[in-house]
Structure formats: C-alpha cells, structure tokens
Amino acid sequence: MFETTIGDYNIPILRVNGKIIGNASDALKREIDKQVEQSGGRLILDLTDVPLLDSSALGTIIATLQSFKKMDGKLVLLNPQTAVMNVLQVTRLNTILEIYSDEESAINAFDL
How many domains does the chain have? Predict the structure, then answer.
C-alpha cells in the first residue's frame, strides 16, 4: 500500500496505492510519522493511485501539514485523482494544501 522513494534533492516521495479509508488511514498516519522523522520535515504525498479517501485520511494529511509547519517543513500533494481532488475542493482543503500534477513541479515547490 505504501512505497517511499527518494526524489531529486533527497526529498522523500510517499506513494500510496489504494483507497485510504478506515484502518488504512491509521496505517497512513504511521507511515507518515516514520517519514517525518527521517525526512526532516519534507514530504511529497503521491496520491496518483488513490481513488478514494475518507475524513480520517484528510485529518491525517492536515495533522501532518501542521506538524511540518511547526518544524519549518513542507508537505505537498502529488497528482490526486479526480474524486480525491473533488473532496479536497468541497472541503476547501485545496486552498491550504499545495497540490501539483507532476513530480518535477512538486519537487520544485521546495526551497532547494
């Protein structure tokens, strides 16, 4: 369900595969927490292969964003599918999250 790769400039990219609902939200939280420790507050969350997420997943993403901001870090979302993007727009989270459609743009969002 999760795979982490290291992109350019040693920025971790957490690739999520499948729906993030129910217990998967808890697993996502644990995986993100592990990345927070290792990345020094920089993370790209790749949602390319996520067809659906629930409110728990949104809560995890917002909590991560807040903790990264406290450590002067940054979280960006990569390529959410249409249904996920619709949820982000309805909840207006698209106004506080940085969302990019390609990996190069997501990497360039970091002050390198």
Answer: 1
